[in-house]
TrEMBL record:
CDD domains: nitrilase_5. The keyword Zinc-finger does not apply. Pfam families: CN_hydrolase. The keyword Nucleotide-binding does not apply. This is Predicted amidohydrolase. Belongs to the carbon-nitrogen hydrolase superfamily. NIT1/NIT2 family. PROSITE patterns: CN_HYDROLASE, UPF0012. Residues 1-240 form the CN hydrolase domain. GO terms for molecular function: hydrolase activity. Keywords: Hydrolase. The lineage of its organism: Bacteria, Bacillati, Bacillota, Bacilli, Bacillales. Transmembrane segments: none annotated.
């Protein structure tokens, strides 16, 4: 499966401009490289303008869903659509949408873990649904959002449901870039799956975002990386046949003793 990741410099507090940016990027890059799947970063509609989300957030995807549906079917691509600030009733969530190449919305996930360091709980609601896997081109996959990466239980639950590829969409700051990298390596090794991330670049309220979107294979080896702190397109192909091979060589899933973990 061929991937293209948009390590995007999100324009803060300007959903329309970000939508145009994504459209132009897809027109320019997708037509050239013809990937199967593209990945966008976290909160690409509004950026981290948390105190303006009441005005900036989408309303149950009413703007974003038709935009992405059309992009997917027009270009024949699967879209791991990062995430957006999204109103559901009175509450605002950080929502990820996944579209297949026919333009069908196959999965929707609200970020479960909110970041105290950014005061997210003041502005956002945490998702209340269990994370599930979805399928694109017959491959079992999952998605988590940024701070979710610090909670190994979440990715483990996706791996136990059969995910072979897990995406991390993020706006992770440079100040904690080592955590960003090492946590992804750990999650790939312990779950023996591909970890594919899209981080943003650029700046918001004095915070620089790290870039360095990563593709790590199920053995914990780096396949490719985006550059630090600048907008970029990251391209790669992943070989799914190695997932089963690695899982049978080191059979951690059959060695688990769940009743001793309080599960
Ligand atoms: O956990 C971290 O250090 C960064 C998390 C974050 O920035 C986010 O979830 O948006």
């Amino acid at each position: 499966m061929k991937y293209m990741i948009y390590q995007m410099d999100v324009v803060v507090a300007n959903p329309k401009e970000n939508q145009i940016k994504i459209e132009k990027w897809v027109e320019a890059q997708v037509t050239k490289s013809k990937p199967d799947t593209i990945v966008l970063p976290e909160m690409w509609n509004a950026g981290y303008a948390l105190d303006q989300l009441e005005e900036l957030a989408d309303d149950n995807g009413e703007v974003t869903i038709p935009f992405l549906r059309n992009l997917a079917s027009k270009h024949d691509i699967n879209i791991i659509a990062g995430s957006i600030a999204n109103k559901k009733g009175k509450a605002i969530y950080n929502t990820s949408y996944i579209f297949n190449r026919s333009g069908e919305l196959v999965y929707e996930y609200d970020k479960v873990h909110l970041v105290p360091m950014l005061n997210e709980p003041k502005y956002l609601n945490g998702g209340e649904q269990k994370a599930k896997i979805f399928e694109l081109d017959g491959v079992k996959m999952g998605v988590i959002i940024c701070y979710d990466l610090r909670f190994p239980e979440l990715m483990r639950s996706l791996a136990l449901q059969g995910a072979e590829v897990i995406h991390v969409v993020a706006q992770w700051p440079t100040s904690r870039k080592e955590h960003w990298k090492y946590l992804q390596y750990a999650r790939a090794i312990e779950n023996q799956c591909y970890v594919i991330s899209a981080n943003s670049s650029g700046t918001c309220n004095g915070t620089n975002f790290a870039g360095e979107s990563l593709v790590i294979n199920p053995s914990g080896e780096l396949v490719t990386s985006g550059p630090p702190e600048k907008e970029a397109t990251v391209e790669t192909s992943i070989d799914l046949s190695i997932v089963e091979e690695i899982r049978s060589n080191i059979p951690v899933f059959t060695s688990r003793v769940p009743h001793l973990y309080g599960e």
